[in-house]
Design brief:
This protein has 279 residues and is of the alpha/beta class. 44% of the residues lie in helices and 15% in strands. The strands form 2 sheets. Strands 7-6-5-8-9-10 form a 6-stranded parallel sheet, sandwiched between helices. Strands 1-3-4-2 form a 4-stranded mixed sheet. Helix 5 packs across helix 6. The longest helix is centred in the C-terminal third of the chain and has 17 residues. The protein is globular, with a radius of gyration of 19 Å. The C terminus is likely disordered. The chain binds 2'-monophosphoadenosine-5'-diphosphate. The site of 2'-monophosphoadenosine-5'-diphosphate has 15 residues, from helix 6.
């Protein structure tokens, strides 16, 4: 999607993958200076460990404790986290204004963290629902403390009645877990189908398949749906904007992702090609 955007913008960059071992993140980041690389995205397991190797860390990346984008300006390395913006932009594009709304977030891992910080910062009330209830409580407590709020609460997914009642009063449901991700597309969603309703916007961060089982159920229940490709594209677009200052062509990027996913569901051949060719 980045190379498609770069080509459409007529810029002279190229975006390539580097496979970096966890212990090599320091020298790898330093090599941006040595090689004059304009920037990189980082993914698991580098997002947290990279912070100590940067000159500047943007405030929201510092607060979340994770960086997914680094910009090299003449050897000065700045870390950003574009996941929050990537998450929020598709919601705003759908006309969903978070202030005063209630959101149920499934999961309490790294992806949930970015979502919680951004949604709470935008004034939404949040209920974190996680398989391991204790982990949800820890994240809720930490976010309330860090943001000076008391609007983030937590429940365990095992509390079926609590989850149904939370969804009943919710405006937004976000899946940040890997449930339903290829190849486990038939996996039962973490939120019960019968609790989905037309006043909900359902946002699944899983992007493969593009329409997860949760999104199918949501669509059938009359809810508005947002797929994970949208967040993937917008977090990438935000990074491209940081590196180049250009206005990224969102539709071109989205088409490139859908094409790479084989029109919706990544096949095993495509997967093995990616693994041997890119990773
Ligand atoms: P990420 O950084 O992508 O969020 P993570 O930190 O491994 O990944 O978090 C994965 C999240 O998905 C967790 O909230 C996990 O629940 P637990 O904390 O109980 O492990 C959730 N998750 C993964 N598989 C799940 C499943 N089958 N059912 C429910 N939740 C699941």
């Amino acid at each position: 999607m980045q190379n498609a955007a770069i080509a459409a913008l007529g810029l002279h960059f190229c975006y390539i993958p580097f496979s970096v071992q966890p212990d090599d993140i320091g020298p790898a980041i330093h090599s941006l200076r040595t090689l004059g690389i304009v920037g990189v995205n980082l993914t698991i397991p580098h997002k947290e460990r990279v912070l100590q190797h940067l000159d500047v860390v943007a405030p929201d990346a510092r607060a979340i404790g994770a960086v997914n984008t680094v910009h090299n300006e003449g050897g000065r390395l700045t870390g950003y986290n574009t996941d929050g913006e990537g998450f929020l932009a598709p919601l705003l594009a759908e006309g969903f204004a978070p202030r005063g709304k209630t959101a149920v977030i499934l999961g309490a891992g790294g992806a949930a963290r970015s979502v919680v910080w951004r949604l709470a910062g935008e004034g939404a009330r949040i209920i974190l629902a996680n398989r391991t209830g204790e982990r949800a409580k820890r994240l809720a407590d930490e976010a309330n403390r860090a943001l000076g709020l008391s609007s983030i609460s937590s429940i365990s997914l095992g509390d079926a009645a609590g989850l149904v009642s939370a969804l009943d009063g919710a405006d937004l449901l976000v899946n940040t877990t890997s449930v339903g991700m290829y190849p486990h597309v038939e996996e039962e969603p973490a939120a019960p189908r019968s609790a989905l309703h037309p006043n909900l916007t359902v946002y699944d961060l899983v992007y493969n398949p593009v329409e997860t089982r949760l999104l199918t159920f949501a669509r059938e229940a009359g809810a508005r749906t947002i797929n994970g490709v949208k967040m993937l594209v917008h977090q990438g677009a935000a990074a491209l904007r940081i590196w180049t200052g250009a206005n990224p062509p969102i539709a071109v990027m989205e088409q490139a992702v859908i094409r790479a996913l084989g029109g919706g569901c990544q096949t095993s051949e495509l997967r093995s090609e990616r693994i041997s060719g890119e990773d």
